[in-house]
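Why predict the complex rather than its parts? Because the way molecules touch one another can change local conformation, and only a joint prediction can capture that. The input here totals 564 residues.
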Amino acid sequence: MKIAVCIKRVPDSETRVKIAADGKSLDEAGVKFVMNPYDEFAVEEGLRRGEVTVLSLGPAAAQETIRTALAMGADRGILLQTDKIPADSFEAARILAAELKTASWDLILFGRMAIDDYNHQVGPLVAELLGLPCVTAVSHLEIEGTQGVAEREIEGGIEVVEFPLPAVLTADKGLNEPRYPALKGIMAAKKKPLEVKPVQPGPGSLEVVALMPPPDRKEGKIVGEGVAAVGELVRLLREEAKVL
Amino acid sequence: MTKALAVLEQRDGVLRKISYEIVTGAQRLGGTVEAVVCAAGPVQGAEQAGKFGADKVVTLTNAAFAQYTPEGYAQALAERIKQGGYQAVVFGASATGKDLAPRVAARLGVGVAADLTDLAADGNAIVVTRPVYAGKALLKVKVTAQPAVLSLRPSVFTPVERPKAGTPESVPVTVPAGRVTVREVKAAPAGTLDVAEAQVIISGGRGLKEPANFKVLEELAHAFGGRAAVGASRAVVDAGWRAHADQVGQTGKTVSPSLYIAVGISGAIQHLAGMRTSKVIVAINKDKDAPIFKIADYGVVGDLFEIVPKLTEEIRKLHG
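Output of the joint prediction:
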């Protein structure tokens, strides 16, 4: 099976966010970047099912992210290089779709969302642009021939969804247990093909006005210690917070 | 004046509560709000959308719409939107909304300004706020797309009653059979409330020591009489103690309940990402230096196995 997996380089989830001087972006100094955790599920699923090409839209440094996927076992990588990932996901999707269109795929996989911008939409946007069926947030997957059955979590239950291949799927946690790259894989990854193609995303129709720290939560209080504090806690929840 | 379309949700022919939040959010744009819902037939509770500010409530009907059909819903909505001349189309960022909004947006040639916690009209544009980097920052964005396709973070837009006509209209639509079909919905056992929809969440972490001990949290949830759910930290989900559906955090669900009680959870950034927009946060932890106390409104330091049962007893008394 021929599989494309689209991955994104994102700040590690433990990053302390510092806002850059322009007031509109993240100050990247000292920030550790990793492969978006949901994309790891997508890469792993690809590796279990066929020959994997990894694509990433991002800066030159995203080559490292692609190398990580190659070290996990992916066959080749393509970096669609731009210094600035557009705030408008439609622009990102348009560029990825244009590249994906140049080959044929049985499956195109994404993570269900990126943990930096929380947009959760590039997968389904690409599917629409390519005219392919799409299932999002897949936590269980079975494929037989050209027919697939996926499960996705919804509020209060699980949706069981049938779809034909080729298709676009976005991966949720639970789909599999992503492997760690072994030393042998890391060595092999250095020799695998990684093609770099410059791209020019348009401005799109989302203009960033500001990146701001979240409002401070009002200073909390330690009500007390042990069982003795429970009475006071309940009183505060009733009378001050008014949630009981 | 803005003309907004609020895309409501139904399940099994009953309007979902998030629909009121969507209408309330659309009202923030200050113009007229038309509501639309895809369904197989009349939707129970659809008239309620008028109470929260919809001038008109349109049901797009098709026999296949008894189940969510991603492609059918997307086509019916995209056609309606193209004819309607709306400045904004507002979805909920629920499981269905997250799946549907991008499909509709792509058909209109735009992206989604997703998972918003605030929105306002600004001349011909719409200015929105959305949490990014696990809630450690807020991104303010000007949306110039016509129409602007938006999705609202669940439980953030508290429904406000603002009665309007809510004139019902039913429009049969024809759509081709979709390639993606929902074969079945496996419902969670009756009586279990999803953490994404609960008003009260009691979450447990490693401090619970073993899976069976979650019983003390379930008893507390039960004391709240059907409006509380039990959540879990990533550590205990990864350890297989609880289902992923219960996980609150960056790689789980983002929740904003009225009351969030974190029990035996230290408060890793990735957990805070999922619950920091809760209205009131209570932390119970034996380590007085645990980071969770920094964002909690009320903290109790001590042994959760003594504190939680006592709290359960007190809550039971209140609820008779």
